[in-house]
């Protein structure tokens, strides 16, 4: 399969972290070459995830600021320089929305944002993406979107189903593009639907539809919705498309 660098987004509790964690059990990846960079405790309480291994640079790496992420990626670049090959199969960064906020918080420690600082912020975010692409075969960037409609109509994020077309387009074309302006092969949207009986199902939308406007480069087939999305499930539909 081609190298996969993708971003997936959705409201809270949409299954994004579960999708990211599936990389550790993927048949396409070596779990000892997968790192999950967690900057907002998204993996807290999850069972079966490997602890961070400093020697290999794999496992769940919990970070609190942008400096820790930058230092980790620089160390992986040094490792690549020593070995002559990429040290990682996959980097999962969860979540890039909060990472953007951490970058801004770092820049405002000595005063408010200005044009120079916004330029520094953009450089940091773009350099971060380039470093991930440099040291890893694949990259998953997880983002969180917020409700952009009327406050009186805001859905319960733990049980949100399909949103109306207008609000969905605002979320994807407004909130997402405001902070993720870099080159990804797939931009997916994840959401949860809850039946009348209370049973929840999780979905990933790969392509724009009348309700979900998703743009990507690697998936060019018909609009596709994956139930219970996983890294291997995504690889399967991409591989089938390439075979066709």
Describe this structure in words.
The protein is an alpha/beta fold and 244 residues long. It has a single domain, classed as Rossmann fold (3-Layer(aba) Sandwich). The protein is 35% helix and 20% strand. It has helices spanning 16-21, 66-83, 96-107, 115-135, 165-179, 231-243, and strands at 5-10, 34-38, 59-62, 88-94, 136-144, 186-194, 200-205, 225-227. Strands 3-2-4-5-1-6-7-8 form an eight-stranded mixed β-sheet. The chain starts with a strand and ends with a helix.
Tell me, rounded to a whole number, the average pLDDT.
79
- Major sheet: arrangement of strands: 3-2-4-5-1-6-7-8
Intertermini distance: 14 Å
DSSP helix fraction: 25-40%
CATH level-1 class: Alpha Beta
Q: Based on the structure given, which CATH architecture is correct?
A: 3-Layer(aba) Sandwich
Quote the CATH topology: Rossmann fold
Question: Which outline best applies?
Answer: globular
Main sheet attributes: strand count, strand direction, barrel closure: 8 strands, mixed
- Counting helices, strands and paired strands, the structural category is alpha/beta
The gyration radius over C-alpha positions equals 18 Å
Fraction of residues in β-strands: 15-25%
Residue runs with pLDDT of under 50 for 5 or more positions: 156-176, 208-215
Number of strands: 8
């Amino acid at each position: 399969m081609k190298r996969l660098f993708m971003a997936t987004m959705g409201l809270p509790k949409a299954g994004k972290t579960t999708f990211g964690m599936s990389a550790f059990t993927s048949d396409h990846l070596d779990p000892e070459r997968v790192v999950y960079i967690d900057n907002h405790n998204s993996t807290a309480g999850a069972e079966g995830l490997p602890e961070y291994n400093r020697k290999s640079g794999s496992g769940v790496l919990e970070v609190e600021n942008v400096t820790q992420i930058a230092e980790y990626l620089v160390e992986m670049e040094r490792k690549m320089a020593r070995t002559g090959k990429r040290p990682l199969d996959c980097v999962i960064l969860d979540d890039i929305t909060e990472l953007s906020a951490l970058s801004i918080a770092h820049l405002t420690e000595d005063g408010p944002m200005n044009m120079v600082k916004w330029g520094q912020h953009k450089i940091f975010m773009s350099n971060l993406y380039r470093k991930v692409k440099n040291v890893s075969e694949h990259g998953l960037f997880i983002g969180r979107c917020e409700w952009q409609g009327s406050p009186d109509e805001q859905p319960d994020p733990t049980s949100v189903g399909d949103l109306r077309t207008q609000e969905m387009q605002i979320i994807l074309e407004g909130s997402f593009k405001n902070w993720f302006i870099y080159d990804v092969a797939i931009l997916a949207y994840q959401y949860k639907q809850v039946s009348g009986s209370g049973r929840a199902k999780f979905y990933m939308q790969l392509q724009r539809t009348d309700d979900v406007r998703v743009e990507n480069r690697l998936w060019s087939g018909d609009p596709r919705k994956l139930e219970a999305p996983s890294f291997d499930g995504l690889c399967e539909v991409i591989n089938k498309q390439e075979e066709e």
